[in-house]
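Here's a chain:
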Amino acid sequence: MNKRILLLALSFILLGGVKMEASEQGFNVSLSVKRIDHIPGIPGGSKNPIEFPTVSQDGHTIEIDIPHPEYVLNIVDSNDNVVYTVVVPSNVSEVDLPDTLSGTYELQLIQGNWCFYGDITL
């Protein structure tokens, strides 16, 4: 009986530690990708696999793992209006979003003809 209580207490301590670590580092943003055609009617494009950025969110801070190419970061509301935009140079890993934004938005990272997008809640 004492062993069970000890194991149970140890499990709660270990799980609590993992949860605390995850909240300190934020969480990953799940991204999808779509092609943006700037010049309609012209086929082509690279046959190489697309390299997804690794993006995490901690409150109003977005972190993009370096190295990455230069991106245009857009925050888009539910009516498809861009409410915030900024260029993220390749040597910048963190972007602080305005505190005035609250709710659910689509995060877009645009690089060339590719748009990586996912939902975030601020």
